[in-house]
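Narrative progress, year one. The postdoctoral researcher (J.K.) led the effort to move from monomer predictions toward full complexes, under supervision of the PI. The following entry was the first complex the group processed end to end, covering 360 residues in total.
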Amino acid sequence: MRHFWRRGYHATSIDDLIETVGVSRHTLYSAIGGKHEVYLRCFDVYQDAVVTPAFEKVEDGNATLDAIAEYFEKQIALAAAQGLPGPGCLVANAATETAPHDALAAQKVQEHHHRLKTGFAKVLLNAAPQLSAADRSNLADFLVTSAQGLWSMSRTVHYASALREQASLILSLIELRCAQ
Amino acid sequence: MRHFWRRGYHATSIDDLIETVGVSRHTLYSAIGGKHEVYLRCFDVYQDAVVTPAFEKVEDGNATLDAIAEYFEKQIALAAAQGLPGPGCLVANAATETAPHDALAAQKVQEHHHRLKTGFAKVLLNAAPQLSAADRSNLADFLVTSAQGLWSMSRTVHYASALREQASLILSLIELRCAQ
DNA sequence: TTGATATCAGAACGATCATTCTGTTATAGT
DNA sequence: ACTATAACAGAATGATCGTTCTGATATCAA
């Protein structure tokens, strides 16, 4: 997963995978099936290992905008810990690299976006109940797109501070809109 | 350029290039140098052929927020004309695929981001002169990140309407902030 | 201890990759 | 018309790719 995450699908070879995991070629193929199957399974691993720890507070029924700030901050801190320019987000990377030509990867991306949107929408329902459902839906989509932009940026940027400023600006704009 | 744009660097082969362009292998290598050199030149071609036509109004000294809306709309219309899910933006794709492991590509991405930021900042200076320079700089960065997010989305989304809603929401948030 | 299962290291395969090289043909200047 | 230059098609090369296959080794229940 870490190889696909950092280097992408095409730039990761079977040798990279078996060398890092310490498993034999035969085992990889007999147990999982091949490179593409491994890739697809990585999305599920990524959800459990990376997305859930940072995002589950957002998915809590009583979350506020702070939970979104915490999601951003956790992912930025993770990126900084792994070294910037960093790996970004496995799913965001897949959205640009593989999704347009890989229906199964595209489905994993869609599922992730749906998860994010649902979480963001739940927070917006708490934070700005006066907004229409359509407005909240659009704002949730906006947050998904913003996350996509942020994690793309984290692959080219050298300082976490740039990402933190971006994240806080996104949230301040949301707050401004919610206060309307 | 179109191959790199749509399929990315690793998924594009020399055969793809010479077949599409109608040039011989020998000519490609003697005239340009190799795959990587072709790739790097494509960024310049892309600036002239795609970015400038959509963005030059933003770079005009007297541009308003409408010019940014027009930039978004032109790129969305182009994506829709090429078929969604589309190729997105060559530079945005490079930001996630190659930039982290290719210093020269990373430089092209940086130059593009700087171009966008400078254009956006110029508009903000006209639209909201009461804001501090730091605020305008942050908002310009935000617009760069938003563009990155939008063009990433355009590689997974099936309807241009989703992109148009996103673009208009981004602009409405900017307007809200500028009216403060 | 035996036998079945699982995992191992590594060779082998066909395909594709980027790149270089070999002749041949077209073009353009004199 | 002649010559030099440029572009051509395509073979050849060495490397790497994903995948399959082979035989050896380890694990573990009976």
